[in-house]
Amino acid sequence: MDADDFAAGRSPRERILAATAELLAEGGREAVSTRTVCAAARVQVPTIYRLFGDMRGLLDAVAAEGFTAYLNTKTGLEPTADPVEDLRAGWDLHVDFGLANPALYLVMSEPRPGAAPQAAVDGAKFLAASIRRIAEAGRLRVSEERAANLVQAAGRGTTLTLIDMPGDRRDPELSVMAREAVITAITTDTPATASPGPVSAAVALRAVLPQTTALTDREQDLLQEWLDRITSPAQ
């Protein structure tokens, strides 16, 4: 950090977060310590504890910033007429973000107690909305919840595996194969109305149920319960 940071009026919190992110990018998790962060951000040790509680709190805050940056890459996507292709684009952005920010992605992927950062919650909602569009098109063969969980688990696992590979041995086709395997598992080539099957039909109806006006609230709740039972993984 140089004098320009202070001239720009950056707060101690902003300097600490920026310094931690930079240390992560340059040297990985091992490069981040109270001493190195304080030196880079030009603050005293008590400042970190006052603002973040401890180093765990600091890393959680950095992860939250990472989720925000990741979400910004998603919100720039313009939906197309093909929701499955949009899911492919979202998967590729996810993997690309992880490979471009490996140390940050590892911190973001760590299990942590307590409430998830709002940006992480918003990211999950973005994925759920993408899955919902596929269901509304009649092309989802499993429940929306199961589809979202599978995409999230496979996408994260694929990204972590690629990060763990040495750069000269990294296999870019691994992501493509994993992506297509997931898409094959959760989608159909044609709308459910063109291919028989109660689960696909129930998923499609479940997705558009909130748009109906012919049913009372009680009737909608009952129909939703029936559809959920049809699309349940236990079926």
From TrEMBL:
Pfam families: TetR_N (PF00440)
Keyword Mitochondrion in record: no
Residue ranges flagged as DNA-binding region: 33-52
Domain HTH tetR-type: 10-70
Alphabetized UniProt keyword annotations: DNA-binding
Tagged with keyword DNA-binding: yes
Protein name: TetR/AcrR family transcriptional regulator
